[in-house]
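Module 6 notes. Inverse folding takes a fixed backbone as the condition and produces residue identities as the prediction. Think of it as a translation problem where the source language is geometry and the target language is the twenty amino acids. Below is one complete input and output pair. Work through it position by position during the lab.
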């Protein structure tokens, strides 16, 4: 079937039952961890191997030159904060990360975008 970006319990169940995997975006890592547990449990309840579901995360990255405050969104902040988010995503079982929109609060130029892209590549 493909990958579903499911968020509600019913949609998450469809992903667990029908999809090849899950493709969330914009969910904090702690919430993702809980939803992965639910997804795997739902897959198991319909006799699917939970490990067959591929977990791919779409990361909307927003780079800042200085660390952002504690209430920042996942994948926002300086490169060290973003690196910690990438590591946290891997730790909860995310298998693949799709980098989307590498913005920079400090540089909106093409050169700035390319520099940020290179920095993110080095974090992976």
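Target side of the pair, the amino acids:
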């Amino acid at each position: 079937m493909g990958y579903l970006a499911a968020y509600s319990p019913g949609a998450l169940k469809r992903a667990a039952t029908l999809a090849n995997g899950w493709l969330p975006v914009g969910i904090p890592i702690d919430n993702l961890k809980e939803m992965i547990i639910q997804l795997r449990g739902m897959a198991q309840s319909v006799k699917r191997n939970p490990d067959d579901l591929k977990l791919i995360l779409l990361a909307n990255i927003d780079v800042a030159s200085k660390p952002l405050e504690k209430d920042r969104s996942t994948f926002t902040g300086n490169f060290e904060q973003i690196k910690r988010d990438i590591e946290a995503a891997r730790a909860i079982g995310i298998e693949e990360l799709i980098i989307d929109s590498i913005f920079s609060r400090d540089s909106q130029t093409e050169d700035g975008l390319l520099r940020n892209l290179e920095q993110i590549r080095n974090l992976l």
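Reference fact for the lab report: The longest strand covers residues 54-63.
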